[in-house]
Predict the structure.
Amino acid sequence: MREIVLILFFLVENGAPKSLVVIPEDPSEQARVAANDFLWHIEKLSGARLPLKTEAELTQADRNGALVAIGATRLAKEAGIDVSKLPPEGYVVRSAANRLFLLGRQDVLPATKKELRGTYYAVSSFLERDLGVRWLWPGELGTVVPERKTLPVPAIDRTGQPKLAQRKIRNALTNRKFIEGMKYVPTDPAQRQRMIGESDAWLRRMGVGTRVQIHAGHAFTRWYERYGEEHPDYFALHLNGSREWKNLGKPKNVKICVSNPAVVEQWIANAKELLKRNPSRQSFSASANDGYYTGHCTCDRCRSWDEPGAPDTYTFYDVTAQGRTTYRYVSLTDRYLRFYNRLAEALQKAAPGKFVGGYAYGTWRALPLREKVHPNVIVGFVGLGYFDEERREKDLAYWDGWSQLAERLYLRPNLLHGGNGLPAVYVHKLAHDLRRCFDSGMFATDFDSLAHHWATQGLNYYVLAKLLADPRADVDRIVDEYCRVGFGAAADHVKGYFAQLEKLTDRIAREFPEVSKRLTRELELKKRVRWYHMAPTWYTTETLEALEVKLDAAERLAEDEAARARVRFLRDGLLFAKLRAEALSAWLAMLRMPRDDRSAIRAARKSVIEKSEPLKSYYRHHATTWVICPQLVRMISLERPVRPRKK
């Protein structure tokens, strides 16, 4: 039996506008952005541009007609909608008679003075659930807007709120690594700005956002610049007895002597200064700087904070030594957690109710043996990835342990850097892990970073955004929706393509640790080979041809040009795997050459350069296409398409 749907009025009928969009007399920025997004999509759907007015501009004839009220309008209040009763970031989608109300709670995040996106989420909810719009990836091709000349408004009454307080996915187009990558892949600045705008819109439409502010990143990146000369005692003692950090790598990776009471005093003074500027700030970072295998303090006091019986040990590097000098040492978790706790105790005296944010990261990610977590410490767990199953299982065990220790725990993975642009799918493991983390206390996320390899890993990004809105969502339904909406009659073959890629990704994760060790020994390398350097091991000609067969069948079945274009988009991503595997095969062959056979090495080097030429051309062509983001691909030196020098 078909469900009977009550239609209240029409936004558009037979391509003609039948309603008007109204925003408050003094609209907030979010109301303006939401209204413009609504109007853009309605025009794409139907070809009709609806009029937009503020409430002050409405005539009596307007009021007698059909209205879409976006934001905190008087019309909404007159209809009895009280958004103050909603939770932060909450929203309402409600229709009544000839009115459609799309609005959210009017909140500003005190620490940032930025308005929360409740109203925007109301608009996105209506576009997606009631009009069938989907945002598979940024840009026109990834935006699915089904053409409909008539847009009815049924009876609707729903509220919503994103489940997680923070659903952060960083946009890699704005970070340092992308800018560095532009040295090798020439990028038109105007095109980069276009991509930033399109990707920010994608993140916003998919519900990425926050109702809290967490400061827990690397906290001491400028300390050496500010205090190095006057307070050398603030900084880590090296094995050579020096606290000097000049010419020892990047200043932002400098480490601190965390057991020094003067460091605590300075950190508290800095926190007070920040509070003067922004009394609403809730948290202050205490995480050690990046480079977790190097530079940690070796003074007796700091070492006394470590737990000699810690089961986890690591290979650390002595940054002061000539060459690559290493030593084994225990986990630093007890040391850094004791530091966080000391800061939290001091902060409660200086600013009661405020929080210290600190990572469980790298060589201090393992569980502490002695220290407990102060109630006012927010722990950001930096872990999880899908290209090394041994590490993933260890990280899940660590997460479970931290969830028993920390009252406030959030997930801060680097997993979106994984894959280095190669085709990979890990959506089922991702769904399993996010639900496990959510069920054990995860209140926020901070994913570093959205790398924009959309033709090769875009399904992962889409599923991630959906799961951040609701970590208990059904991943199979999300994948079905992605394939059905984006590819129509070709959906089953596209879904089969993704399933095949997921099996390949699982295989890589199982085999990587042993293959990496074996290849590192074989090539006599000082560092373990990264899995993407071993792409030819898994992205074989046979494997890639089998994946091509799936896409061939999908393209034949695709019923419209948009669906065929999306299949070709995926095919362009698969071409990257082919070109990269060929170039890396030549590179690995060069590394296997006897080191005293210079003639053979020269010939092998020439082969690498020849195999890399098509890849360089590919990077240039796809610098701003969303297929992959070549600026973020970690390249071997011979495959970098360097910008020509100016004469």
Notes: The domain at 7-161 is CATH 3.30.379.10 (Chitobiase; domain 2). The longest strand covers residues 442-450. The radius of gyration is 27 Å.
